[in-house]
Amino acid sequence: MLVIKDLHANIDGKEILKGLSLTVKPGEIHAIMGPNGSGKSTLSSVITGNPSFEVTHGSIDFNEKDLLELAPEERANEGIFLSFQYPVEIPGVSMVNFMRAAINEQRKYRNEPAVSATDFLRLMREKKELVEMDSKLTNRAVNEGFSGGEKKKNEIFQMAMLEPKLAILDETDSGLDIDALRIVANGVNKLKSPDNATILITHYQRLLDYITPDFVHVLYDGKIVKSGGKELALELESRGYDWIKQEVEA
Amino acid sequence: MSDAIIHEVTQSEYKYGFTTDIETDVIPVGLSEEVVRIISAKKNEPEWMLDFRLKAYRHWLTLKMPTWANLTIPEIDYQSISYFAAPRKNAPKSLDEVDPELLKTFDRLGIPLEEQKALSGIAVDAVMDSVSVKTTFKETLAEMGIIFCSFSEAVEHHPDLVQKYMATVVPYTDNFFAALNSAVFSDGSFVYIPKGVRCPMELSTYFRINAINTGQFERTLIVADDDSYVSYLEGCTAPQRDENQLHAAIVEIIAMKNANVKYSTVQNWYPGDKNGKGGIYNFVTKRGICKGDNSHISWTQVETGSAITWKYPSCVLQGDNSSAEFYSVAVTNNHQQADTGTKMIHLGKNTSSHILSKGISAGVSQNSYRGLVRIGAKAENARNFSQCDSLLLGDKCGAHTFPYMEVNNETAIVEHEATTSKISEDQIFYCNQRGISTEDAVGLIVNGYAKEVVDQLPMEFAVEAQKLLQITLEGSVG
Ligand SMILES: Nc1ncnc2c1ncn2[C@@H]1O[C@H](COP(=O)(O)OP(=O)(O)O)[C@@H](O)[C@H]1O
Ligand SMILES: [Mg+2]
Asked: What is the mean pLDDT of residues B108-114?
């Protein structure tokens, strides 16, 4: 589904990703862990086409398409979703208008007619329940005045609405209390299917208590330096990252 | 609006006197007493109207163009302008000859084909004749005693009303452009709502635009008698493809006791091309007076067009307990310049005014809000609240706010708030990541920002305004 080969990427002329390769197949859940500043968010930005980053080398294919050739909105409409580490506020744009625009763009991309008002509202209601999101929030402007936890929940709500093929969750668990964490994990698990894949970027093992990854990767200094099963996450939890650094530098 | 249509209409309407001779005469460009007399004669005007024009003209000669606005206005040679509604020389004969860009815009605005032809300046009689809506609703209005007609018709058929009210709100001495308009105005609209009548439909120039073209110097006079209500729409839905062209209009509103007048504008004159070539210079004087107690006037404007906009729809709150509102969205892109705002002059007791101005600047444009709130010495308990917001797209444009307050009565409460915000790349990317293109994202954000103002517009206008906001800003981000 997703094939990344020898990816190098810069921001402001500084190389952040330094030869990263990763393959994700349908139905899989991959966890990416790693110390702060190792390039995890950069990876999610590059996959989704954030124009601040420049890809200098390597390739990203998504379902046999060259992702680097596609505009960010096309990548989204191909089914790639990013739950942002720091979701932005968009004052004046109501959640309803925003979601309707997003859904309709996706439908247009697939040559489907625009969603009817009743279908749309039904979908909103259904997904709000799924992530236990307060209607007060969906009546507001996008993320405006949302607490940190509410913003994260809103990301999962949007993911549920858009039903992506590949979801990338960038530290969606950070700053969540245990209830919110359970709800977010629940949302992810409910959307899991043999056709979809998820990349979980996280610092902590605790999310992985709720979502069981098929693979765990350690990203360090712009490269994946170690991969394993879910037991790798446990090892990282107990031993920290220093041993990885030593291994890499050795 | 197309000169070809003016020509056709005027030609077919005025069959008498020497007007036909004038048609064939070549009227020299430039402004002189003679030109003023010719305009008046061509319109078969009575003596008093000619006198008014001449007085205005003579006064205009003593004035200089104002320079206080935050605008860079190229030298305008008033002697090189034709003040006579001459037919457009290269008027297209069919839609095939019209700029495809223009047609694309029409399509996206959902303007019907016949309308498109008229707006592009194609001389088609059928278009004007096809506006049968006009005649049917005119009858309904007439039954209620409502007068809604062109200014010329009003001069002819309702001279008492015109003489009583014309230039009482905007005298020809008011300013340079008001004097110019008073001297040479081509036509315009006249509305009279009798006592106690609630006008049952929105009165719109949109219906009339093809039938009686109002030209570069139009004049509108709206009189709402005691206890009446009217909502008036002025729409220019079409971008124009002319060279720099001067547009100097006057709008006067008079609201008597308990009367309520709502005036909405969507202005989309041609703004010039991306490099700032061409476009309309729009110098407009709009003012209303809340003459009677408990009267109300509200101005709503969505300004997306014109190369230069100089416009301050204002209100004089003379009647006790009268109130006024000014809701404005002004968008500037590329090389556009706008200096727009309002004046609220509180004279009566317990008067209140509300100003909500939303500026949006993109490209290398300059967008200024200029507002005056004046509380007269006798205006006990006056209230004003002003909110001026600016939204910037990119970092080469400018947003400026010039609020002036003159408070001469200590019971007054005058409040002013201002904000400036920017559309960030992060916001755009967030939308992109949800499948929304940059242009649609800008449209969403801008329409969200302008919503409070756009919501004041009548339904059909609101939809058009939303599309316009987005189209105007196309290509301004990313
Ligand atoms: N917008 C930016 N401008 C400059 N440097 C950046 C920017 N974003 C990230 N970086 C740098 O890139 C590196 C990787 O950051 P990031 O991908 O956010 O790491 P992680 O998500 O793993 O904590 C860091 O050194 C960070 O300082
Ligand atoms: Mg990060």
From this structure: 57
Comparing CA positions, the residue from B141, B148, B217, B230 lying closest to residue B189 is B148
Residue A34 has pLDDT above 80, yes or no: yes
Lowest mean pLDDT among A233-247, B87-101, B138-152, B236-250: B87-101
Of B420, B5, B44, B66, which Cα lies nearest the Cα of B213? B5
Instruction: Please name which of A22, A31, A39 lies closest in space to residue A217, comparing C-alpha atoms.
Output: A31
Question: What ipTM, to 2 d.p.?
Answer: 0.97
* pLDDT for the residue numbered A199: 96
Most B-contacting residue of A88, A97, A155 (CB-CB within 10 A), to test interface: A88
pTM: 0.80
Kindly report, residue by residue over B229-265, the tens digit of the pLDDT.
999 988 765 444 445 677 888 999 999 999 999 999 8
Q: Which residue has the higher pLDDT, B55 or B104?
A: B55
- Domains detected in chain A: 1-40+48-79+168-176+193-229 (3.40.50.300), 93-163 (no CATH)
- C-alpha A13 – ligand 2 centre gap (Å): 19
Cβ distance B433 to A162 less than 8 Å, yes or no, reads: no
Phi-psi region of B258 (alpha: psi -120 to 50; beta: other; left: phi over 0): left
Domains of chain B, residue spans: 3-330+342-350+423-472
Cα B448 from Cα B147, distance rounded (Å)? 37
Looking at beta carbons, which pairs linking B436-441 to residues 24 or more positions away fall under 8 Å?
B436/A73, B436/A98, B436/A101, B436/A102, B436/A105, B437/A71, B437/A73, B437/A105, B438/A73, B438/B477, B438/B478, B439/B470, B439/B473, B439/B474, B439/B475, B439/B477, B440/A101, B440/A105, B440/B470, B441/B477
Give, as one character, the DSSP assignment of residue A116: P
Ligand 1, atom 13, lies closest to the CA of A37
Nearest protein Cα to ligand 1, atom 5: A11
Q: A interface mutation test: which of B429, B451, B455, B477 has the most A CBs within 10 A?
A: B429
Closest Cα of chain A to B431: distance in Å?
8
CA B143 – CA A107 distance, rounded (Å): 51
Of A90, A101, A162, the CB nearest to B427: A90
CA A146 to chain centre: 19
Query: pLDDT tens-digit profile of B93-103?
Result: 566 666 666 56
Return the ∠ at Cα B263 (arms to B473 and B123), rounded to 5°: 70
Q: Residue A40: CB within 6 Å of ligand 1?
A: yes
Question: What are the CA-CA distances from residue A36 to residues A8, A17, B128, B394 (Å)?
Answer: 19, 14, 70, 32
pLDDT of residue B307: 81
Kindly state the tokens that stand for A58. Answer: 């390597």
A53-86 tens-digit pLDDT:
999 999 999 999 999 999 999 999 999 999 999 9
